[in-house]
Amino acid sequence: MCPAASSDPSICGAEGSYAILNSLLDLLNKVALDPVYFCTNIVYLCPHSAFDYYHAEAYANELVEGKPKFLKENNYLDSIYAKIRSTVDQRETLRVAHISDLHIDKYYTPGSA
Asked: Residue 51 and residue 68: Cα distance in Å, rounded?
């Protein structure tokens, strides 16, 4: 996966690092180096932007505007947690082991780590 010219372990130590680098460069090429984006947002030579920018608060308010009243009051999650707390004695407790993102080492020897 690593380029032939590189033997640096910080670049090629992980098998997918070269693929990640390619993905990042591809994203950079598609977004930041897009001619319209570059002209309007990097060098500021174009008179107007083809991109619309949203402020987070204004965007959130716009989304909430069409929602039901109980969501607009912004206590939706708090009311769910209050209901959960009020029924704590009525619920069964489960013990769960969640195992994910396994990396199997076929060459592992006990005590070597």
From this structure: 31
Q: What is the mean pLDDT of each run of 10 residues along the chain (113 residues)?
A: 52 63 80 77 75 80 81 80 84 87 81 75
Q: How far apart are CA 67 and CA 81, in angstroms?
A: 20
pTM of the predicted model as reported, rounded to 2 decimal places: 0.27
* CA distances in angstroms from 99 to 50, 95, 103, 105, listed in the order given: 45, 13, 11, 16
Which residue carries 């308010």 as its tokens? 61
Picking from 14, 42, 17, the residue whose alpha carbon sits closest to that of residue 28 is 42
Gyration radius of the chain over CA positions = 26
**Are the beta carbons of 45 and 38 closer than 8 angstroms?**
no
